[in-house]
Amino acid sequence: MHGYSRLGNGGATGRSVTATTTPSPPSSPRLRHSRGSGKSNSSPGAGFAGGGGGGRGGGEKQNLVERLMFVIIKVVLKRRGLLLLAPLLYISGMVLYMGSLNFDVNLKNGGVVVRKRAAPGTVYRSPKVFQKLWPYMEAERNHSNNALMTAWNPKWHQGWKPCGISNNSEGELSETNGFLIIEANGGLNQQRLSICDAVAVAGLLNATLVIPIFHLNSVWRDSSKFGEIFDEDIFTHALKNNVKVVRELPSDILEHFDNNISSIVNLRVKAWSSTTYYLQKVLPKLRQMRAVRIAPFSNRLAHAVPPNIQGLRCLANFEALQFSEPIRMLAEKMVDRMIKNSSQSGGKYVSVHLRFETDMVAFSCCEYDGGEEEKREMDIARESAWRGKFRRRGRVIRPGANRVDGKCPLTPLEVGMMLRGMGFDNTTSVYVAAGNIYKAEKYMAPLKQMFPRLETKDTIATAEELAPFKGHSSRLAALDYTVCLHSEVFVTTQGGNFPHFLMGHRRYLYGGHAKTIKPDKRKLALIFDKPSIRWEVFKRQMQDMLHHSDVKGSELRKPSGSLYTFPMPDCMCKPAEATHKDGGS
Q: What domain of life does the UniProt record list for this protein's source (predicted)?
């Protein structure tokens, strides 16, 4: 059956066509005239007429593309050899496309291997960065402008002075409401935190404080008692006008509990409890039973407390808690030796709190450059110290995410590169405060290469001098604490109680400025992931980081902050304020 074309012109109305043999009908005269005259047609249906163009708009572009494709196909068909390029064109296109989606495409064994590219900052590439930058560091050795001499800008030092220390008159303390016994757990500075808060609570409750008991921690494994780490006489004397301190419970009180401290009721106090809670819940029990015990006593008092109670914290931490005489004597010798070794820089030295011990690396769940052997060792370490914790259902370990989020401990290599980039040259004396470094021979080598004048407690003190402290991690930490306290620059690399207390103590001693480099580890993760980075760019980034630490050196305590890290304004004030405050005390 035949049909008529709805697009045929009047001269062809009597002509029949079939679907298979008849060519397409010609365009209408009106459309042909429009194309020939170069005038565009504004009729809504013109653009659909017989596939022809509606002026010089989209139809012409479509025709151009069609013609181009026709030419290409025609050339390819005529020259069949070009078909051999098709696989290459396909692979090239795939490489470009995958590259835009963070995929790496490689040819291997005649096939294509596609791997997702690691996000920036998620992989440990610091050794490659060091390999690139080391020649430039060598070129600047023995530099005349050592950053050690100019690290801290005086304009950021606001001249804060110690004040606000609670100090009652020389009169007798009022009759006690009872005896407070606390157990301090954790390492050196966790114990320090518990002791200072216990002094504050004892003052709040008008209680007599029994010298704190140190709980043997399964991680620190230090059996030292209070008097073996801190000086009991100095502690008691410094607090005598504010809080009464005794070494042990009186015999009549102890007999009341069958001579067994464990029989004394242990009050389960929630973390960060307010002063109101202690006055309403603990004080009545204290008066009733004449002695109460709080164990554990870590973080059991809120940061925000009345000024007089904050003053007791200041007094305890910065004045009353002094290390025992054996620790003080050796620590002073170590500081003197560091100053003597730093004669080329005016007796100034850098101290670094390096947290790259096996347990810290394992706990961080970060990966370095040790491959399968490192993974196996870290799995064993995690299971040994935190049995089952990292294998719980739903627990996912993401080393790359940890690194880019700034949660990975800095390696000795990274610390060294950072300091050299900041301008500390190879003549700088560096003291490293640390435990047993993971694979120390491998990881410490580049740091020693960058800073030949590197010391630790094992090199600055003799084996005989350290012998009484071996096996006692808190006493060894006290030595590190003292040497770091008196350095010109302190570098913290991983957080924790040690640097937090040290920064606060340094602010207390150095006019309110911590003189501490606190690196932005998120930025460092990205910078250390650029093996092609230029030395000038690297230095600029590191010096900006040093400047930021300088500006932040004199921060005031925020409502949620700890005065052990930020002693202003609770424990310190400006000179004019100090005169007024001291005159009124």
A: Eukaryota
249 — alpha (psi -120 to 50), left (phi > 0) or beta? beta
Determine how many CB atoms are found less than 10 A away from the CB of residue 434: 19
- The bridge status of strand 179-184 relative to strand 213-214 is parallel
Helix (H, G, I), strand (E, B) or coil at 508: helix
298, amino acid identity: S
What is the distance between the alpha carbons of residues 405 and 393, in angstroms, rounded to a whole number?
Answer: 23
Answer for the pair 299, 272: CB distance below 8 angstroms, yes or no.
yes
Backbone angles phi, psi at 494, to 5 degrees: -150, 0
Query: Distance between CA 230 and CA 327 in Å, rounded?
Result: 9
Residues paired with residue 343 on neighbouring β-strands, in sequence order: none
Say how many C-beta atoms besides its own lie within 10 A of residue 20's C-beta: 5
Amino acid identity, position 188: L
Distance CA 501, CA 194 (A): 12
CA distance 206 to 222: 31
Residue 155 has which token pair? Answer: 């304009």
In this predicted model, what pLDDT tens digit does every residue of 338-372 receive, in sequence order?
Answer: 999 999 899 999 999 999 999 999 999 999 999 99
Which pLDDT tens digit goes with each residue over 265-321? 999 999 999 999 999 999 999 999 999 999 989 999 999 999 999 999 999 999 999
Residue 102: the pLDDT is 53
